[in-house]
Design goal:
By secondary structure, the chain is an alpha/beta fold. 40% of the residues lie in helices and 10% in strands. It is built from 21 helices and twelve strands. It has helices at residues 3-18, 85-104, 144-151, 162-168, 182-191, 200-220, 222-234, 238-244, 248-261, 265-269, 293-297, 324-336, 338-365, 387-390, 400-415, 429-443, 461-472, 487-492, 507-515, 529-534, 568-571, and strands at 22-25, 33-36, 72-75, 131-137, 172-178, 193-194, 197-198, 315-316, 419-426, 449-455, 479-484, 547-551. The strands form three sheets. It has an eight-stranded parallel beta sheet with strand order 2-5-4-9-10-11-12-8, with helices on both faces. Strands 1-3 form a two-stranded antiparallel ribbon. Helix 2 crosses helix 15 and helix 5 (182-191) crosses helix 13. The radius of gyration is 25 Å and the shape is globular.
């Protein structure tokens, strides 16, 4: 490269750094990361900028070409180097499984050389011989740089890196990082994806028409979007709540809590205030509270069971702890910014729907890539060299996650011993996890998923019930944990602290309101408390004791002990601590406050 070009490249790099588009990450632990691009191919997570072209490539990691101590550079907008299938399934996964085997070998803390992480992979103080693996799958709207920064996050240098916090708790950590940013998904949707097929030429020609369609669509659908969002926003006001929402979810929750927690279930479910379970109600502020103290405090029966009911759903329900000091400023901010909100909601519907559709596509290409279904004409010319063409009916699933699952299944059979796999999926990660469970059952892989933990799941209730419930009937009797925000926290989530000009509501609210097109209650997101509680009657009774339901509190001091925003589950919630998944009544040795980090 000429000196002039080097200078120009340096200027571009500086400009991108100032704009927050470049990150320098030291020692990305590739042995704990499965990273995939938009087509479902594995990519090199160790860097995508300043990788020596003569050394790095589909058979070598960028990080392996750098001198010790030199930070790897990651730039958004630049693709990561795809890894050859043979390298990924052989060298890359082999290195991961060798490190995993070393991690499980006693005595704890002894290093053998297979694990290359810096800082070194921590091990628990005690090891009971069970080989535990935690697979974390992030959700949508994550950049590739952001997903890597999470892996090595140190909570502003107050904690070990995230992968080591998980490792120290007794799990070998694996992070599934998939390309789900808004920019990349929306641009791919308008420029190349047409009716389920990737057509870059046709897409490029018709891209202007797609943009025009989105503009027209945003105008035509504006009244529908406004009305849906208005109902969502106004339903968080106590004086309008009963008129805009149904009591079904709260009544179902009350009945389940009574069955699980208290001795006299009939009295608990009644309307007799001195005997019944009555959830706390928020104040009615005008601007000072006019609601009675009795309603604010609710009522809890004084006859708890000595042990929880073993034949029903384990459940705990968060409380609405809002005060007038929370609600009045929020309402005033809402009124002041209403015009900007109305202007932004319709365009968000237009561009957001396209991005959402492509994100859904990418959850599928992780398992089945496009090149399984279509081959260029030259592959059919004799002599045929492409093995796919010689056995068209037996093409293997070669999405990156499918290749990993095949390798993990073989590794478990080879290493032997007792294994316990935990899947923790946030938001759209639950859609990927559902597909993963279906694939394990279809291919009869002996991968024992013991714990299925969904945090604010963006998968539909129907998708969860049709994927998780059959898996719960596996011989090793796995458990499912559905962790959800308080419904008010979902509905009133704000994206700015004081003045919030953007639409309110978590990602799940936006999915239900306009990004997806649910035709029934079962097609709405399973990670929203109101949706899931309406559908629990469809969960068969034989698996109910292993379906754990947990919602968190909102308002007041709830943030000190609860996730209160959609993103809190992957940023503040300590999802690797098993006790934190459980209903609060049966948590042992861990307090709710110990399950979350303080807000930033």
């Amino acid at each position: 490269m000429t000196p002039q070009r080097q200078a120009f490249a340096s200027l571009i790099l500086v400009a991108m750094s100032l704009a927050g588009c470049v990150a320098s990450l030291q020692n990305v632990p590739s042995q704990n990361i499965l990273m995939f691009d938009e087509v479902g191919k594995a990519v090199d997570p160790t860097g995508n900028l300043d990788c020596p072209a003569a050394l790095a490539g589909p058979h070598t990691l960028c990080g392996e070409t750098r001198p010790a101590g030199i930070l790897a550079t990651h730039a958004s907008g630049f693709g990561y180097q795809e890894l050859a299938d043979s390298y990924f399934s052989g060298t890359y996964l082999k290195s991961m499984f060798e490190c995993m085997d070393e991690y499980f070998k006693p005595p704890p803390g002894q290093a053998y050389g297979a694990c290359k992480q810096e800082p070194a992979l921590l091990r628990p103080e005690k090891h009971d011989g069970v080989k535990r693996v935690l697979i974390f799958i992030h959700g949508g709207l994550n950049t590739q740089i952001g997903s890597l920064e999470r892996v090595v996050d140190t909570r502003k240098n107050t904690e070990a890196k995230l992968y080591n916090r998980i490792a120290e708790s007794g799990y070998y950590p694996i992070f599934v990082n998939w390309r789900s940013s808004f920019t990349s998904t929306y641009l791919e949707g308008i420029t190349s994806i047409r009716q389920g097929q990737k057509r870059p030429v046709l897409g490029g020609i018709t891209a202007p028409l797609v943009v025009v369609y989105d503009v027209i669509r945003s105008v035509a659908r504006a009244p529908l979007v406004w009305s849906n969002q208005a109902v969502n926003d106004l339903s968080t006001m106590p004086v309008l709540e009963d008129g805009l929402t149904t009591r079904d979810p709260q009544e179902v929750a009350k009945q389940l809590v009574c069955d699980y927690t208290f001795t006299n279930t009939d009295a608990c479910k009644s309307n007799v205030r001195s005997e019944a379970l009555i959830f706390k109600k928020p104040p009615i502020c005008v601007p000072f509270n006019v609601r009675s103290t009795e309603e604010l405090e609710g009522h809890v029966p004084n006859d708890p069971r000595p042990d929880p009911n073993p034949v029903t759903f384990p459940i705990s329900v968060g409380e609405d702890l809002r005060t007038c000091s929370d609600m009045v400023p929020s309402f005033l901010s809402y009124v002041v910014t209403l015009p900007s909100r109305l202007l932004l909601e319709a365009p968000l519907d237009a561009v957001g729907t396209g991005a959402w559709d492509v994100m859904l596509r990418r959850t599928q290409t992780l398992f089945n890539r496009d090149d399984q279904f279509q081959h260029p004409s030259k592959d059919f010319i004799e002599p045929v060299s492409n093995p796919d063409v010689k056995a068209m009916a037996d093409i293997p699933r070669r999405g990156g996650l499918s290749m990993f699952l095949k390798g993990l299944n073989e590794g478990i059979q080879l290493q032997g011993g007792q294994w316990e796999i935990t899947i923790v999926a946030h938001s759209m990660g639950a859609i990927i996890a559902n597909q993963l469970l279906r694939q394990l059952m279809a291919l009869k892989y002996a991968i024992p998923i013991q714990n299925i933990v969904y945090m604010a799941a963006a998968a539909s209730v129907q998708d969860v019930q049709s994927s998780v419930v059959p898996y719960l009937r596996q011989p090793h009797q796995p458990s499912f944990y559905n962790l959800m925000l308080h419904p008010v926290a979902d509905e009133r989530e704000r994206y700015a602290a004081v003045i919030d000009p953007t639409p309110r509501g978590s990602l799940l609210v936006m999915i239900d309101n306009f990004l997806s097109k649910p035709m029934t209650y079962s097609e709405r997101t399973a990670g929203r408390f109101d949706n899931f509680m309406r559908a629990v009657h469809n969960v068969p009774k034989d698996v109910r004791p292993r379906v754990h339901i947990k919602s968190f509190s909102v308002g007041g001091d709830a943030e000190a002990a609860s996730p209160v925003k959609h993103g809190d589950f992957s940023s503040r919630f300590k999802f690797w601590i098993a006790e934190c998944w459980k209903p609060e009544w049966i948590m042992k040795d861990v307090t709710p406050q110990a399950c979350v980090y303080p807000p930033d």
